[in-house]
Amino acid sequence: MEMRKQQANNTGPHTPDGKTRSSQNSTKHALRSNPRKLLPAETQAEVDAIRESWEAEFDFESPAIQSLLTPLIEADRMFRRATTALFDAEIALCQTGLADEQLAVLHKQYQLILRYKTTHERAFRNALQTLERFVGRRDREERAYRRQVIHKKVAAVDLAVKILKNDLNLETALAPQPWLSKAKPAQTPDPPPSPASHLNL
Q: What is the span of the domain harbouring residue 69?
């Protein structure tokens, strides 16, 4: 009876650190957790460094780039978690003096983490390729626009040189040239030889 009263009064940890530790009691490998939440082994500075490195790689001022960077950063974090977990699993398998049952459990956990690592690596590569394709298409459009602007500037410079050189006004310079409007006379084809010409030969 006394034990039941103590259990009823026990509402779990009260300090922030205790609550943080208890929230991870059911965590096994954290490879299916929310990438936006910090794990006990992670720090906000590390997460900010990952984000800043990707923002420096691409133009973060673009709203479209921002929407594509978010899944890339999350996939990168999960891929890093899986890589670290796989390294820890390899170290655990290298321990000596393990019983066969323990070795079987560790090997099964290693295979599970390896599958998660493959999944997160594929998600990371897909997110990166999607962003790179978008940036490449945008760069091609920007290059085409710059070429169009350069062409217009060159045409304007040619027009200005033409006006200054020939002392023309703007309307005369923009008018079609008369020699360009004259159609060339059509050349009439030679008539075919008559059958009589062959007889005369």
A: 28-139
